[in-house]
């Protein structure tokens, strides 16, 4: 059976977290859509709050430690990424941005990404378009057309509100599944030079 690797990144800071709830629902929708195509989803869910210290250390030292190297490797090898952040000051959270800042340059090139966000008010829904989509587009990721924003009221909005949110989630999951199904995973070049020659020479004494 064909397998596609999906990495879900949740930047929620509390337990339970509405960001994690949205991330889980987007993941389930993507798994169902892949399953409908006869494709198995191999999912890894990452809680960034558990990596906060490692992310900050990597920002300062440029060296990932702890569990972070394994997570970054999975992100680089993903066929699809689901990225969900709470809204802080009308944008993504600092932890969310810092994590993707330490992802290796080029690792997201042509990788399908589904963006999601949660916040206390519907007025923050444009964060998907003015913050998240540009950030991943800059990284040359392939951002799916439908992003999903969930305000606090969406979780208890009655039958109509719940149906509207569910429709957005299912549509976004189908779009990510289609792109992930067609994603061509990059193969590592065994002859690729891991360290630039100039860098090697700079370490030689005279």
TrEMBL record:
SUPFAM superfamilies: Flavoproteins. Keywords: Coiled coil, Flavoprotein, FMN, Oxidoreductase. The keyword Flavoprotein applies. Residues 5-155 form the NADPH-dependent FMN reductase-like domain. Pfam families: FMN_red (PF03358). InterPro entries: CE1759_FMN_reduct (IPR023932), Flavoprotein-like_sf (IPR029039), FMN_Rdtase-like_dom (IPR005025), NAD(P)H-dep_FMN_reductase (IPR051814). This is FMN reductase. NCBIfam families: LLM_duo_CE1759. Residues 162-189 form a coiled coil. It comes from Nocardiopsis changdeensis.
